[in-house]
Design brief:
- This protein is mainly beta.
- The protein has one domain (about 30-70, about 85-170): Immunoglobulin-like.
- It is built from two helices and twelve strands; from the N terminus they run βββββαββββββαβ.
- It has helices at about 80-85, 160-165, and strands at about 30, 35, 40-45, 50-55, 60-70, 85-90, 95-100, 110-120, 125-130, 140-145, 150-160, 170.
- The strands form three sheets. Strands 2, 3, 4, 5, 8 and 9 form a six-stranded antiparallel β-sheet that branches. A four-stranded antiparallel β-sheet has the order 7-6-10-11. Strands 1-12 form a two-stranded antiparallel ribbon.
- It is globular.
- The termini are far apart.
- The model has no long low-confidence stretch (mean pLDDT about 90).
Length: about 180
Amino acid sequence: MPFFDVPERKQGFEELTAWDPSSRSAPREWVLPATVPWTARLGEGRSAVVVLDQVRCWREGVEFTLLAFRRRVPFSGNRLSIEATLRFGVGFADGRRATTVDPWDLPDDRPALVPQGGGGSQFHQRKDYYLTPMPPAGPLTLVVAWPDGDIPETATVFDAAELRDASDRAVAIWPDLVPPSP
């Protein structure tokens, strides 16, 4: 008699379906993104720093990885999530913008900045945000504010042309499941 009562596995397979660009989520299962070597201190306070760590580009959008570092946390040891008060936004060259405080039910023609996951500890947290659509060429302004970290609203400007160029280097893993470029 075995020690572990392992449930019987279902037979058959679940099949990956075509990626839906209207989902406003990164096409990770379908396309290998290209990276852009942007790193920067996006904001800092007396005991906290927010850093841009990684940038991944797909044809339809961009994922930014932010790292939030705290030098001290409340003695209670409660882990303070950066999601609670970290504000992140992106300003396009054409005046459009997307922020982490925008409502979820945005019209389809508005840019969206969608949380994708993260992790960390009480002194360091990582958070990924997917921006869609791909921003137009020109200045791209990343803005952060983190009241709990005493970080005031701070803007850092990059060239979105680098993102657009990188998106051409993204590689379809399953070309038959990725819609053609518009």
